[in-house]
Write a structure and sequence with these properties.
By secondary structure, this protein is mainly α. Helices cover 56% and strands 0% of the residues.
Length: 55
């Protein structure tokens, strides 16, 4: 996430932004709940419309 969003913004997004595709969890909460990091990244990419070449 830091590579895509920058370290400060990535940390903020991971802690604060609730993503519907993660069951209404933040990135941090999803990872703590045991959701596969690849699935978390896919949800982040979909939510923030990360271009396919950077996914």
């Amino acid at each position: 996430m830091a590579e895509e969003f920058g370290s400060v913004r990535a940390g903020s997004l991971a802690a604060d932004h609730v993503i519907a595709d993660l069951g209404g969890r933040t990135v941090d909460q999803a990872l703590e709940a045991g959701i596969d990091p690849k699935d978390v990244w896919r949800a982040v990419c979909a939510t923030f419309e990360v271009p396919a070449e950077r996914r």
